[in-house]
C-alpha cells in the first residue's frame, strides 16, 4: 500500500507562487509515477502534471505549461509542484496520486490510471 500526503496549499494573490509537496510513504518503491490533479467546485477532476520518479521525465497540461514545474526528491520520497504566475482559474483542490509500478512506468494523464490518492490541499488564488 502507498500513502500520499499533500502540503503547501494556501491563499495567494494572482501572479503569486506556491509550492506543493506530496510525501510518498508505505511501499513507495511500488509506485514509479506520481501525478498532480486538481478539482474546482462544480468541475471534474483534471490533470495538471506527472513525473516518472526514477528518471524524471515529466509532462504538463497545456493550461499550466510554462508556469508550473514538477520535480522530485527521491531521497525524501517527495514530489513537488512549483506553481508560478498563478491565476484565479488555478483555484482548486490539488491532489497528488501514484500509479502502481505493475501498470508500467510511463507518463499518465488520466485519473483512472492512478491507484493511490492523497487527501488534497486547497489552493485559492484571488484576483
How would you sum up this structure, described in words?
The chain starts with a strand and ends with a strand. Helices cover 0% and strands 53% of the residues. The radius of gyration is 13 Å and the shape is globular. Strands 2, 4, 5, 6, 9, 10 and 11 form a 7-stranded mixed β-sheet that branches. A 4-stranded antiparallel β-sheet has the order 1-3-8-7, with no helix packed on it. The chain is mainly β and 127 residues long.
Please bin the fraction of helical residues.
under 10%
Q: What is the number of beta strands?
A: 11
SSE string, helix = H, strand = E?
EEEEEEEEEEE
**Sequence stretches where pLDDT stays below 50 over 5 or more residues:** none
Structural class: mainly beta
Number of helices: 0
Summed up, what is this model?
The chain has strands spanning 2-7, 10-13, 18-26, 31-39, 46-52, 58-60, 68-73, 78-83, 92-100, 116-117, 121-126. Helices cover 0% and strands 53% of the residues. The N and C termini lie far apart (40 Å).
Notable traits:
127 residues; mainly beta; 7-stranded mixed beta sheet; 4-stranded antiparallel beta sheet
Secondary-structure blueprint of this entry?
Blueprint: E1 2-7, E2 10-13, E3 18-26, E4 31-39, E5 46-52, E6 58-60, E7 68-73, E8 78-83, E9 92-100, E10 116-117, E11 121-126
Parallel strand pairs: 2-11
Antiparallel strand pairs: 1-3, 3-8, 4-5, 4-9, 5-6, 7-8, 9-10, 9-11
Amino acid at each position: 500500500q502507498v500513502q500520499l500526503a499533500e502540503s503547501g496549499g494556501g491563499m495567494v494573490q494572482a501572479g503569486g507562487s506556491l509550492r506543493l509537496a506530496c510525501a510518498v510513504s508505505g511501499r513507495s518503491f511500488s509506485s514509479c509515477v506520481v501525478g498532480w490533479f486538481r478539482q474546482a467546485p462544480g468541475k471534474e477532476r483534471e490533470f495538471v502534471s506527472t513525473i516518472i520518479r526514477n528518471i524524471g521525465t515529466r509532462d504538463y497540461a497545456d493550461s499550466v505549461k510554462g508556469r508550473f514545474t514538477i520535480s522530485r526528491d527521491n531521497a525524501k520520497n517527495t514530489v513537488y509542484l512549483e506553481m508560478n504566475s498563478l491565476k484565479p482559474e488555478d483555484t482548486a483542490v490539488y491532489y497528488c496520486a501514484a500509479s502502481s509500478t505493475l501498470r508500467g512506468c510511463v507518463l499518465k494523464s488520466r485519473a483512472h490510471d492512478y491507484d493511490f490518492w492523497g487527501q488534497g490541499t486547497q489552493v485559492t488564488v484571488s484576483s
